[in-house]
Amino acid sequence: MLPLERQKQILSWLSEEGTLSIAEISKRFNVSEMTVYRDIKPLLEERKINKTSGGVSFISNSSVSSHSCTYCLKELNNRHPMQIITIHQTVEQFCCPHCGLLRYKDIEKNVSQIICRDFLQQTTISAKLAYFLFGADFNLNCCQPQVLTFDSLKYAEQFQKGFGGTILRFDQAVEEVSKRMNGDMGCGCHK
Description:
The protein has helices at 3-17, 22-29, 33-45, 97-107, 153-163, 170-182; strands at 19-21, 49-52, 55-58, 82-86, 91-94, 111-117, 124-126, 131-134, 147-150, 166-168. By secondary structure, the protein is an alpha+beta fold.
């Protein structure tokens, strides 16, 4: 079966079932998971499907509203949202930096800008210049690992002193959230 035929079949399955794991798609086609990842890459880039924890889900026009996170479909949290503006001038909204960083990792070459909000001051900042605090003991009831953004290293360190966690720069934060998503640590980013 050709990749285009597999892609059509994946879309068909997802329209019926909503979500599928990479392992399940691999088993159904009797191909490697790496082949499945190559097959879904264009579908992800075209925003026909959405990457989830361990799999993919179908994006219908009704499933993603302007009030839902593009990545996990949770209701947007105005306390610490993130946005990606692509080179094609589309805007993707995320409930939190966790989801924004994961999506950035998926479409990095197509990103024109990635912006977030300073957690304390609520000012809009470039995510590439921000400081990211992972694992603070401050529960916002959002995706895990929880990630908070700060414009200033001084404020990030002060918040860290009170609530713990690890401060990372942008590239480190992208790698850390990706590692935790794919590694043994798991992720609370479920639909």
